[in-house]
Amino acid sequence: MADTFWGYSRKSGKVGIRNQIAIIPSVFCSAKVAERIAYQVPGTVYFRHPVGCSQVGEDLEVTAKTLIAIGNNPNFAGVVVVGLGCERFSPYELAEGIAPSQKMLETVVIQKEGDSIAAIQKGVKAAREMVQMASRQSREEFPVSELMIGLNCGGSDMTSGLIANPALGYASDKLVAQGGSSILSEITELIGTEEILARRAINNEVAELIRKTIDRTEEKLRKQTQQSSNQERTHLISKGNYDGGLSSVVEKSLGSMKKSGNAPFSGVISYGHQPNKKGLFLLDSPGHDGEVSTGEAAAGAHMILFPTGRGTPTGFPGVPVIKITGNPKTYEKMKENIDINAGTVLEGRKTLEQAGEDIYQEILEVASGKQVKAEVLGHDEQFCVTRLP
Q1: Residues in CB range of 76: below 8 A, 6 or more apart
Q2: Cα angle: 28, vertex 31, 37; to 5 degrees
């Protein structure tokens, strides 16, 4: 029998693992009003961002699609859209994009309400009513085929590719084998692996998309490094990666791809889009942790699995981020931030498969309501919409 978890049924037919209300500004000008609304209403999460205006073309379109997709993430029972009123990406367009999900929805426009105080009052009233309605809903049992996880990593060291990432790959494979979905991204950290990943594609079309996605990112990085006025800015991996024992971006990539296990790739997702089927997918996104997590949450991921060798405390609003490390010393130093110590493999106390099973069981528990450490501590830094040049 398939494994199960306890989640929240949505009218759209999807399932959420959290039941919060999202407060989403359509433009940076309305960010403070949105923040004040969320601050006054427990049970809400707030999405600060610097975009929504003075953008044109595909750059603005990616912003629009991403904000709409975040509002459609099934972890949110309702959404309060907060706009200024004169922005290029209209708050009404944002609300219209979320409306088909049939979740609770309200639009607050500062210029229409008269001032920020009036807008905050309206938003607080709407959010409070939504939280009360959401609190009446109980969790129900669902098969793991309803789950989608995002795979991300940051602050990698040598233990990431040797232990934490392969263990996560085991958990991802187990989820996908039961009909669930998983998303691999960080294209800047997959350079050199395109042929390996393409061999795992379900068909030639997907294989070619994988190659083109990674090749396009590599060419972009080549131009950026050639045009740099400061050669110290041309390194493709961080100082922390070097200090942690990684020698090059290709070495890092060979470890990074291990997060996806051995399952076949069903397709490639554009940023701000959702897959139309289940399985393992590649998301076209830069390597920035926040942009990756945001793209995966926009694709519908219920949670993010995040290996880190060096350690990081960051989280994402409304989408739990499970921290995993393969370095036992990092776990001891940052055990208030890291959820799973896969460093037990390095110490000889567990096998890689046992560590992978620990991660898989944590996925089920978090999906059923267990809070991760980033949630408990209020970390929400990873929301960051990517920009196009």
Answers
A1: 16, 18, 20, 21, 22, 45, 103, 318
A2: 160
Closest CA to 158 of 308, 381, 333, 350: 308
Q: How far apart are CA 200 and CA 202, in angstroms?
A: 7
Per-residue exposure over 226-259, b if at least 16 CB sit within 10 Å of its own CB, e if not: eeeeeeeeeebbeebbeebebeebebbbbbbbbb
Are 140 and 6 in contact by the 8 Å Cβ rule? The answer is: yes
Q: Are 302 and 149 in contact (CB under 8 A)?
A: yes
Q: What is the pLDDT of residues 294-333, one digit of tens each?
A: 999 999 999 999 999 999 999 999 999 999 999 999 999 9
Report the alpha-carbon distance of residue 120 to residue 40 in Å, rounded.
Answer: 9
pLDDT the model gives residue 236: 67
Look at 112-121, 242-251, 263-272 and tell me which has the smallest mean pLDDT.
242-251
- What is 242-274 written as a DSSP string? HHTT---HHHHHHHHGGGGTTPPEEEEE-TT--
Both tokens of 273, joined, read: 């889009």
At which residue do the structure tokens 């669930």 appear? 180
Tell whether the model's pLDDT for residue 28 goes beyond 70. Answer: yes
Query: Scanning the structure block, which residue is given the tokens 């890689």?
Result: 352
* pLDDT at position 102: 97
CA atoms within 13 A on the CB side of 245: 11
H/E element, 360: helix 352-367
- Whose CA is closest to 287, among 190, 187, 386, 219? 187
pTM of the model as a whole: 0.94
